[in-house]
Amino acid sequence: MSASSSAKRTTHLASQPSLPKGQQTKAAIVDAALGLATQIGLEGLSIGALAEVMQMSKSGVFAHFGSREELQISVVREYHKRFEDEVFYPAMSAARGLPRLRALFGNWMKRTSVELDSGCIYISGAVEFDDRPGPVRDALASSVNTWLAAMRRAVEIATEEGHLRPDTDASQMAFEIHASILALHYEARFLRTPQSVQRALLAFESITDRYSAHGAAPAASKPRTRTRTIPVGATSVR
Known about the structure:
The chain is mostly helical. The protein is built from ten helices and no strands.
């Protein structure tokens, strides 16, 4: 678990308004479960492991959720809430159109940069539950679809504001932006490819340039690489 992710979770709990003791305990359990899930996946969660982390009895942890499945769903919902708080809502202060779309992507990149160390529930959960129908998969898919719908709406608004071409396919552009984030996780977290973050930023600039209604926007600096070797090392938008 990275120091930055641990500090964020501590800050999150400290910033919550006063809750009844039972709800405080449940929130603390979900927080600990989220920390574990980013490291070992949702399938790695167990009542026993959480009881040990929380220094509680297994029956005490179980009483707050009723089942391991409900615990997993609670973790997915908490992850989505924090994702919205860090990525979506701050971007709403940006001007409508391309500035807001850039803010959404910028915030997404900030969170992704941290998750290259701590792990992303959306991505690891998709691997674990892609072929396993049920409530946990439904909760994951609903959260991701909610976010992607917000991205598509942001593209639509940028088109309405005249920042993107009138014929811009919002679903296609959102797909390409999402693909850049997925590639970043794979390249940086799995392959350890140098300058993956810079390449993701450059990919976003390339995407916006192609759809721009006013010609190419200033792009991020292209990463310097050797040519002979490749080192391996929530939500609605209005």
